[in-house]
Design a protein that fits this description.
Number of domains: 1
Oligomer: single chain
Structural class: mainly alpha
Shape: rod-shaped
Distance between the termini: 44 Å
Number of helices: 2
Largest sheet: none
Order of helices and strands: HH
């Protein structure tokens, strides 16, 4: 006689609990991604505004325009790249799931 052991099939309640736990983990990951994206957007905005504010308040006629346009480009590029990266992650998640 062979010693074959059959595993018990999970009950519908166990399957439901496992599915709910997986859904909670996915929602938690989405929430973390959203918060990280919002913090990066706020960081680029604040750094850009700080640079532009310094340039407006500066009395240096040579450096102020360079800092102003540099801060403006830095903030806009950072915001754009952050949003594009968030979109890329979203599309990758939808493709996988």
């Amino acid at each position: 006689m062979s010693d074959v052991v059959f595993a018990a099939e999970p009950t519908p309640e166990e399957r439901g609990r496992a599915l709910e736990a997986a859904c909670r983990e996915i929602e938690r990951a989405h929430r973390r991604d959203l918060v990280a994206t919002m913090l990066l957007l706020a960081l680029y905005c604040v750094v850009g505004l700080a640079g532009m504010s310094w340039a407006v308040a500066s009395t240096d006629p040579r450096l102020a325009p360079v800092v102003f346009w540099g801060a403006l480009c830095f903030a806009n590029a950072g915001i754009l790249l952050t949003l594009l990266e968030a979109y890329r992650r979203h599309v990758a998640r939808e493709r996988d799931g």
